[in-house]
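Quick one, T. Sequence first:
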Amino acid sequence: MTTRTEGVRNLFLDPEELPGLRRRIGHPMFRQFWDGVLHADLDGDRRFLETGIEPGNLLRHLPRACEILQREAFVHLVTAQKQRGDVAVLALDAILRFGKWDYFLEGGKEVIGLQRAPQAAQSLVFALEWIPDLLSEGTRREAEHQLAEKGCLPCFRSLWGMLNPERVEGWGFDPEAAYFEPRDMRRWPWILARTNLRAVPMSALGLGALLLEGRDPRAPEWLEIVRKSFEDFHDVYEKDGSYPEGTGYATYTSGELILLLHALERRHEGGWADAINWRGHMAFFLFTRMPSGRHPEGHVNFGDGGNGFHSDVAFWIARRYRDGRAQYAAANHAGPHRIFSPVFFDPDVVPEPPTGPWHARWFDVGWFVVTTGFRSRDFVVALRSGGPANHEHADRNGVILKAFGENLLVDAWHPPYERRHAAWALRTSPAHNTVLVDGRGHAYHDGSEGTNPSRAEAKVIDELVGGHHVIVTSDASQAYRLVDDNVDDVSRTLVVVPGLRLVVVVDRLQTAGRPAELRSRWFVDNEDGGGRIGIDGCTFTLRRPGAGLFGVAAGTPDVRLETGTFPVPAEHGVHPHLDVVAVDAALRPVLIVAAAAVQSGDPRPQLDLGREGDGWRLIARVGGRGVTMSIRDDGGRPSVTVT
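Structure tokens:
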């Protein structure tokens, strides 16, 4: 690393900061990460960079070259090992050989940067700051030129289009990108403006403009559009820090933004970050954590989200806000470390784990989560209320549940993006733990524009958090009325007793005048073929190797239980489900499901659910402890009393 220009800080690290970085990398928590980085397959990387790259393969080969460049430039910065610098230079040369850096075009001719161009631009920024001494003057100038023309300019076009969508000539895939299904992108400048794919070019353009300040006359204009874009985007994060696309896309979005915010603060713009509730964002990551044996980094996976957060995001939050909760989460519950994890790690921030036997969180995105902790064996229940979101499914009022390392009520993990795929239907309501009215779910979209938001909404209308239980009611009427004019009201009340790992779900339909069939559907995890469903009258078992969910059902009219398998070809998974069905069509049917999670080998819970006056009474005993519930249905929404 060369000495910086007098009075101007580098974007990420100055020479005098390297000894501290080396000490942090030596921290025991980074040992596995750093060993993996140091023992990367350099021979394989060299072969790929020298003879394996197809300069037109932007989908696979460009990102691999970028990943190699970022890793090897960082290792050389830290260790000064010649062979690592040599591989970094090879990777840089390979990226410069690509004729263009993204597969999206405006008006069929101008490249716009949404994914690959931002990644390549970031990679060149890192290289120009971290290994300038290894680059010839000609290579450095060419890298700066291509950073501006193939990276910054396409990112500028995409951000400009999102700020001025009515003036966009039309976005589309490059005809040479034959690996993509055609999409209707006419509304993409509006749709993407509220997604992770705005944060990605925003970060890359900001970093490129900061690096090129004083070297490219367009840099001030580029920084200005980054500022306008950030001001127009940051409220995608809710006031409590929750993020509508889910945790997997939240970590993508936040991981990009923190690089920009960090660099801005080191240069001259220090106030941007506080527009987002970063400490609340960390709480969203932590309290949606839902690890299981099959998904050790799992989070509440409503929609296409559900992957874990990266520690660099959490360490940046901990460092900037002296936030012990974020430090605890990063050190104990984050996914794999990345190269900026030790950069942002501050060992002086004291970790602060949450206290208490369980936690309930109603996030501003509409999700309600009850959790006893953040380890695989802990108990987690989540209710999907809230509005439309990019990467959503048709899952309003859906419930998922995990206990003893097993996903017992499950949403399919990341179904295909392409609407022509045979498993696209896994995104629709019948593939979720929600209700069907006359066999139909609520509104969704046809996928012609991609995984964009629908118009379906749900909202939490009541919640009570007591000392030993939680009661929450979500209204999804609007979502169902969009496709069925006979629906007047659809609501779901969820009762959770964390100490007993007990849930009760009360579903109610009010029709607009014609009797209708109501059924609730429940999927058990069967990714590995280990999910089983058994029924006996009105009792049921959803069983996994390590745990089971034992339950009973009732309702008005009476109910019957059925089992089925969601109709997708078996090569895309076998998805068994339990249906609780009102035996007759009715004007105002009510379904009740009560179930407790028990570890395999433990005694089966005792669940007695019967009529009592104009409602029902549940007496439950689980592991020697008991609870009684009264569920009233007197014409309004059902009410629940727990004693």
